[in-house]
Design a protein that fits this description.
Layout: H1 2-9, H2 15-28, H3 30-36, E1 55-59, H4 64-75, E2 79-84, H5 97-106, E3 110-115
Parallel strand pairs: 1-2, 2-3
């Protein structure tokens, strides 16, 4: 599932990197690679896959990589649950679940900010 999601996010120049990632995972665990990885060369074009109308629960989506993934998915029409440990802004790290939700909605998606600690 994770690698499938990576494939959706990659742009044309990065397709080779996604293929390398798939091969690395498949080589470390052939069973997983054989059943879960969906290679590009199976005839499924990236533009035929869509996140439109799908709901993604993204932890750490208030900033950094999580926010970048959420924004990309929002541009593809996904609904995003913005999950993070806190709803307060960190002085060293800008952004909250609420500011991320506004950015996601501006990018074309729907967002639900949720304060949650997945470590519990």
């Amino acid at each position: 599932q994770f690698l499938y999601f990576i494939e959706i996010l990659v742009s044309s120049p990065s397709m080779r990197r996604a293929q390398v990632l798939r091969q690395q995972v498949a080589s470390t665990n052939p069973q997983w690679g054989r059943h879960r990885v969906t290679p590009l060369d199976e005839g499924i074009a990236l533009d035929q896959r869509t996140l439109k109308g799908k709901t993604l629960f993204i932890t750490g989506a208030s900033r950094g990589i999580g926010l970048a993934i959420a924004l990309r998915a929002a541009r593809d029409g996904a609904n995003i649950v913005v999950a993070a440990k806190t709803d307060a802004e960190n002085p060293k790290l800008p952004g909250t679940i609420f500011s991320a939700a506004k950015e996601i909605e501006a990018a074309g998606g729907k967002a639900l900010p949720v304060k949650v600690d997945v470590r519990d």
